[in-house]
Specification:
mainly alpha; 17 helices; TPR-like_helical_dom_sf; structural molecule activity; ER-Golgi transport
């Protein structure tokens, strides 16, 4: 949705969303309501501003704000954002309804609508329906769609295809923050000097923009991959101070605690916090599934006690 004629007006909003500085994104979007720049009279600019603002609310788990603000008279693109908020709000029945409704919505996509493919692709990704995600996004030149495609390829361990998609992103806009982030994601899945490159990318963004939990977790992940767990723990503690309930930080803290040989109580505390706050998180679901399987095997192979 970015408009080349107005890059400066929305840069801070767009960029802060990409690096996970969600409150700043919201604050900057709200400031624009009081401006009278001629660019702001462009309805496309207004719409893009609102889309990023409401997506930032969603990233903060403030689903009710989005659901209540966006009405039936709002633009279709905002309706798509509301659909994501409804999906993530935690109601199982509504989540199923959203997934079912996607098929009919995607049959009549407006070619100018860049948001529906992105939101639908994200929902399919969260559903772990990777085939549908890739089929939906593969024709889009939207950088966010391409970034989600890269995340999907990395999820299914196709680093070769992720690199190919990254090359396409670079041809569109090599200097975009999102492209730089995608480069770091790909490098995190490689080895050797590429891990160091990923760390430097996140570090440069922290120095240039803000030390958000997203960027701090990126740095920590790179350090973990290089075996530097104590350094990673320091960054993760900083991320926890900024957002005590960030699921990625809690997961990485569990990993680091195990590698540093901390007591089981430490990692168990982080795991309990994660389960309490994000029972539908993929990590929690996978962990719970493995717990159940372990219990099943214990019962299956338990010695028979004769009377």
């Amino acid at each position: 949705m970015a408009n080349q004629s107005t890059p400066d007006l929305l840069f801070e909003i767009r960029n802060s969303f990409f690096i996970g500085n969600y409150q700043y994104c919201i604050n900057e979007a709200q400031k624009l309501k009081h401006l009278r720049h001629y660019e702001f009279n462009d309805p496309n600019v207004t719409l893009e501003k609102d889309v990023f603002m409401y997506r930032a609310y969603i990233a903060q788990h403030k689903y009710g704000v989005v659901i209540n603000d966006i009405t039936s008279s709002s633009e279709p693109e905002l309706q798509h954002v509301k659909m994501l908020a409804v999906y993530l709000s935690g109601n199982p029945d509504k989540k199923k309804d959203v997934v079912v409704s996607l098929e009919s919505k995607l049959q009549n996509v407006n070619p100018d609508d860049k948001i529906l493919p992105l939101i639908a692709g994200l929902i399919y990704y969260l559903e772990e329906n990777h085939d549908s995600t890739l089929r939906l996004l593969h024709k889009s030149d939207n950088l966010e769609c391409r970034a989600l495609t890269i995340q999907t390829y990395l999820k299914i361990s196709r680093i070769d295809l992720a690199q190919k998609e990254l090359n396409a992103m670079k041809e569109i806009d090599e200097d975009c923050t999102l492209t730089q982030l995608a480069q770091a994601w790909v490098n995190l899945n490689k080895s050797g000097d590429k891990l160091q490159d990923a760390y430097y990318t996140f570090q440069e963004m922290v120095d240039k923009y803000a030390n958000t939990p997203m960027l701090l977790n990126g740095e920590a992940a790179a350090l973990c991959a290089m075996g530097k767990y104590e350094e990673a723990e320091s960054l993760l503690q900083e991320a926890l101070d900024k957002d005590p309930n960030c699921p990625e930080t809690l997961i990485n803290m569990i990993v680091v605690s195990q590698h540093l040989g901390k007591t089981n109580e430490v990692s168990t505390r982080y795991l309990s916090q994660l389960k309490d706050s994000y029972k539908d998180h993929p990590f929690v679901k996978d962990y719970s599934s493995k717990e159940q399987e372990f219990d099943r095997l214990v019962k299956a192979y338990a010695p028979v006690v004769s009377s």
